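dumping this here before i forget
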Amino acid sequence: MSDQRPRTTSFAEGNKNTNYPPLEDMKISTFSPRNKVTTVVATPGQGPDRPQEVSYTNTRVIGNGSFGIVYQAKLLDSGELVAIKKVLQDKRFKNRELQIMRRLEHSNIVKLKYFFYSSGDKKDEVFLNLVLEFMPETVYKVAKHYSKSKQNFPCFYTKLYIYQLFRSLAYIHVLGICHRDIKPQNLLLNPETGVLKLCDFGSAKHLVRGEPNVSYICSRYYRAPELIFGAIDYTTKIDVWSAGCVLAELLLGQPMFPGDSGVDQLVEIIKVLGTPTREQIREMNPNYTEFKFPQIKSHPWSKVFRIRTPPDAIDLIARLLEYTPSSRISPLQACAHDFFEELRNPATTLPNGNPLPPLFNFTEQELAIQPNLNALLLPKRPAPPGGEEAAGSTQPTGPPAAATSSSDPAESPPLAPEMI
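structure:
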């Protein structure tokens, strides 16, 4: 199934033309080559459409790809660092990424602060600019640092980061949104505070039961088997598979299923999970049930990972990396798993002594997803001195917000400080 639209867009309803803000609203004033101030008329990411002037400076390129270019800049009024993602806007389509990001507001999802349109060098060329909160690192870069240093990724940080990934997935999945590109590169980090935020919703889509979706989606190493089988009616459980691959990668120090191609990706999966049964294949894509696959036995999970890998980590991975999509646990069930129990201990802090970032600030909407899990999700209140133990409490009692980073390098978490 081909998808001719740009990566971050979707078909516009009907033949209506998108109403862009007038391009002459973009004002640029240059004070000096080193201190270029750009002033634009931008719309806030959330709330009513009330365009306002926003000025930023110190612009520099920090990333690029088929989607466009990402800049780092500093807002003039607040001094806050932001990332500006600039993508070419096709007038035939409405931007799906913008639509989705305007709906999202969660502590583990990168925040859309503003958006604005700008003109390009060619006639009628229009760019959409997403002004996002800036995060200094990614799980990919930090994990790469440990791998190059021949060190294991610390288990505590694996728990801290993967837990926050599942919180972000629980939030978007209840909205019907599938990210479709979960990978270490799209997991932003602040190593000082321990906060993780999911980014890059350029492949994301609101999935509707009965409506087909493109199967050639998601980066190969993290692609769920039903996508490799060509399924077009998949669910948000493809994100759960991808998250399981990220968790396994942090524990292994290398990708779990490093396939060289789509077919080889399936071979890598079969090497570990064994040949899927006819029923499992039917659950992934009914059109493939008559295909013959070589019969390979599954490899014991305990032999896939290092000897000292925590058994509860292996148990969690086994529940995430299931052939049958409906058999994979939900993001919220993953959050409640024993692997993350250390995070629910009120005495747990970051290795630098700072408190954990907010991990249990669940909204009523989040707690309503699977109410039977709430007693497991929320840490129990510590017993008052000399009083009765408050066991079974379901009140959020998470640690205070993360403290500002210490100026003493010895207080920084051991996460590749030289890369910051």
